[in-house]
Amino acid sequence: FVRKCAHGGEFGVLTFLLFRGLHPSPFSVDRARLWAAAAALLYAVSDEFHQSFVPLRSGKASDVLFDAAGILIVLYLIGFVCRSASDEHRTRLLGFHPGRTEDNRST
Fold first, then answer.
1. Rounded to the nearest 5°, which phi and psi values hold at 97?
2. pTM
């Protein structure tokens, strides 16, 4: 059970990092969430496909489902924070201020 939860956690972190790379520039919150989820899910499927060729390993659809669960949980949390958190909390949790349109990562 712990290993299955780790699958979800790893892909949740991947989704969050992809989201942070895609927002605020070049995408809006919703579009960044969509592309981050698509990229993470594609990687999950390709990882399991790769494992089907590795000796003593097997690619399992159930692992992709656990990965997808982690992805969906993070997408929900990002959406929840964007909708209901204060600007200060959004900035702390997601690393951007929703009112700024310029790239917040620049120095």
1. -100, 125
2. 0.81
